[in-house]
Design a protein that fits this description.
mainly alpha; Zinc Finger, Delta Prime, domain 3; two-stranded antiparallel sheet; 6 helices; globular
Length: 132
């Protein structure tokens, strides 16, 4: 999988190696949050991104078009919030001192690149509902 190869390259080139994992997650979470805002506000070009993203959350103009293209790959808010939940779970796992931080990041990349599992039906108080 290309994403795992990119992760390996990123981790191998980092000065801090595995210790930089939380910083990488921070940047990933920030990017997903930016894409969520772009999707929700239906941003179509780099000029509109400055009105959509608040101060301190903006990016350089040369990166805006790429971020807009990335955001448009997601079809719904649900896909982006799923990604944010996966990143948050990995962050919590990294902060609890796992034996192998690289494995936590590899699992995150795999989950982000995989299709979400369909919701499982749950029976409660006589009504059928779906877990997400």
């Amino acid at each position: 999988m290309r994403a795992l190869a990119l992760l390996q390259g990123l981790l191998n080139s980092s000065d801090a190696g595995e210790d930089a994992a939380i910083g990488h997650l921070y940047m990933l979470a920030r990017t997903f949050r930016q894409m969520l805002v772009i999707l929700e506000k239906n941003v179509r070009d780099s000029r509109a991104i400055w009105q959509a993203l608040w101060q301190g959350f903006r990016m350089p103009p040369f990166a805006a078009d790429d971020l807009i293209k990335q955001a448009r790959r997601y079809k719904s808010r649900r896909e982006l919030t799923r990604a944010l939940r996966l990143v948050a779970r990995a962050d919590l796992e990294l902060r609890s001192s796992p034996p192998d931080k690289r494995l936590v990041l590899e699992r995150l990349v795999y989950e982000l690149a995989s299709e979400p599992k369909p919701a499982a039906p749950v029976w409660s108080t006589g009504q059928l509902s779906f877990e997400t």
